[in-house]
Specification:
Helix content is about 35%, strand content about 10%. The longest helix has 16 residues. It has a domain of about 55 residues. Strands 1-2 form a two-stranded antiparallel ribbon.
Amino acid sequence: MPVPGYKQSKNPRKIAERRARPPWANLKLMREFYALAERCREAGVNVEVDHEVPLVHPFVCGLDCEFNYRLILAEDNSRKNNRFSV
């Protein structure tokens, strides 16, 4: 449901995240992951927030919630891409 005065993203990645977010997700904690990543980058450590289980994958579908987040080095995240192994 669109929010009046709020522009919805047309970015496919953002749309996938929005669809994968359960109603019980803790948005405050999720924002804290991104804030911590920003503080690490300011300190010179290039980290990114990663979904452990990919949101879009042929075999699994992760959720966009705090339990599926982790901080990893940016180079490791780009190397991981969309792969998932059990």
